[in-house]
Amino acid sequence: MSPTATIVLIVAVLLVLAAIVLGVRAARRRRLQQTFGPEYDRVVADTGNRTEAERELTERTKRHAKLELKPLSAEHRATYAAAWEEVQIRFVDSPKEAVETADELVTSLIGERGYPTGDYDERFADLSVEHATTLEHYRAAHEISQRSKNNTSESGENDETGTEDLRQALVHYRALFADLLGEDPVSSAGSTASVPAPRTATEDVTTTAEDRSVSEQPAPESGVAPSRPDATSR
């Protein structure tokens, strides 16, 4: 074989190998993008390097494969669903406490499914492999919950202006909770997507005053029909 032919052959082999490498990388990239969804773009943006980001996501996949995950029994699903309905009911009177309970309930469910629950960042990374579609909900809920705790510890009291944020946190928590549970934790009639607004102090006072005014009205005498206002008194 002539030197020219040898060079051409070597170049051709190198081009084939380069095409194979690029094809493998492209296939891996597509697989990571399909698995992690928006989380893929977020990690790329955070690291500033696509290769480093894909290396991190690949490590998450390997770590996730070592976990001993398990489905919930029907009995446990019913127990968690009932607990969530209690959280939603409690929100009406105690929004902050309900959100704190929701955070604890979600963490408990994460552990029940077989995920480590010690560190939030590691917990988040492990969940991202199979629950990427609801991961942003978890991040948003966690941020609101932490902000609420910090505000309370600094001021010593709950900030009522954050009530709508707390309601949104509960909605976000429910998205991941339902994903982990495998079903909607509440009936469609009581869906957390429309969490009722908490009762305010003004509403309590108004309700009490109305109840009192009704109770103070004299009862009609026996056998006597209650009087009706005539036209002139209207």
What does this structure look like?
The protein is mainly α and 234 residues long. Helices cover 68% and strands 0% of the residues. It is built from 9 helices and no strands. It has helices at 3-36, 38-47, 50-65, 74-91, 95-112, 120-127, 135-155, 163-181, 201-216. The radius of gyration is 29 Å and the shape is elongated. Residues 141-162, 186-234 are annotated as: Disordered.
Question: Which helices and strands appear, and what pairs or packs with what?
Answer:
Layout: H1 3-36, H2 38-47, H3 50-65, H4 74-91, H5 95-112, H6 120-127, H7 135-155, H8 163-181, H9 201-216
Helix pairs in contact: 1-2, 2-3, 4-5, 4-8, 5-7, 5-8, 7-8
Strand content: under 5%
What portion of residues is helical?
55-70%
Number of distinct helices: 9
Structural class: mainly alpha
Q: Can you count the beta strands?
A: 0
Short key terms for the protein model shown above:
mainly alpha, Secreted protein, 0% strand, 234 residues, disordered C terminus, 68% helix, 9 helices
Describe this structure in a few short sentences.
By secondary structure, the chain is mainly α.
